[in-house]
Amino acid sequence: MLTGKELGAAIEQARLAKGVSKKKLAEDFGVAPPSVQGWVKTGRIDKSKLMELMDYFSDVAKPAHWGLNDRLSGFLSLPPPNAMDGVEDDKESNVVNIGSRRTSPDASYITISHFNVTASMGLGVAPPEHNIEVIRDITIHLDWLRTQGLNYSKAENLAIIDGDGDSMEGTFRNGDSLLVDRGITDIRTDAIYVFTLDGDLFIKRLQRMTGGALRMISDNPAYPPIIIEGEQLERIHIQARVLLAWNTRKL
Which of 38, 152, 191, 249 is the most buried (most CB within 10 A)? Predict the structure, then answer.
């Protein structure tokens, strides 16, 4: 992932490729124009805002534009079409096309997409090579989400994927559909995450350890924890946080 001035230059390149002004960009993200100027000059931007920015520019900037590997970047986010070269100045993106979410005419409801993505609750599986498709849309009332006591980034970041394997048995079962928050792409608290590691896609509990290492935990006691440390930490990419199994059992 690019950082510093290189990231700022990538942002500016994406902005120019998309043909939006810095003023328009600031309006779209609800920030003051000087903030956008800061993104471009220094590359300093909140990570959650950066992910939104990458989705925003996904029509003009592929994952490689941001220094990300196409297979291992935020494939669970939104879309990535044409590549983009040279130019200078403004923006970010990182993903794989999942189509557009249909919205409900009633603001009390939200439509959540169920993707054709299966993540391993065992030894890992290869992440999707191609565009992510929507299997079906599920419309629920926002009051139902509130009754579950869930904390999530934004309603539009919610999605449903499937789990495969028995290493998380006791928390959820093989084949369970899982509600995930795609707006969470870093480890903010010990929880269950969808992530790629060394080319494979996992669903595991991640626990932070003293010194920066991570403990990858299978809730099924038959599988011992695995410690992720050193250079391996650079190869873990958080795709989403798992909120609950689609059987209303809160995680």
Answer: 152
Structure tokens at 72: 């291992």
Question: To which CATH superfamily is domain 109-250 assigned?
Answer: Umud Fragment, subunit A (2.10.109.10)
Where do the domains of the chain lie? 1-97, 109-250
pLDDT above 50 (res 85): no
**CB proximity list for 70: less than 8 A, separation 6 or greater:** 62, 63, 64, 80, 96
- Smallest CA-to-CA distance from 15 within 43, 57, 78 is with 57
Overall pTM > 0.70 = no
Q: Which two tokens stand for residue 178?
A: 């899982």
Q: What is the pLDDT of residue 241?
A: 92
Q: What H or E segment, with its residue span, contains residue 25?
A: helix 22-29
Distance of alpha carbon 93 from alpha carbon 77, whole angstroms: 10
Q: What CATH number does domain 1-97 carry, 1.10.10, 1.20.120, 2.40.50, 1.10.260?
A: 1.10.260
Residue 78 CB neighbour total at 10 angstroms: 26
Residue of 81, 148, 80, 54 whose CA lies nearest to 110: 148
Cβ contacts of 24 within 8 Å, gap of 6 or more? none
DSSP letter for each residue of 28-78: HHT--HHHHHHHHHH----HHHHHHHHHHTTTT--GGGGT--TTTS-TTSS
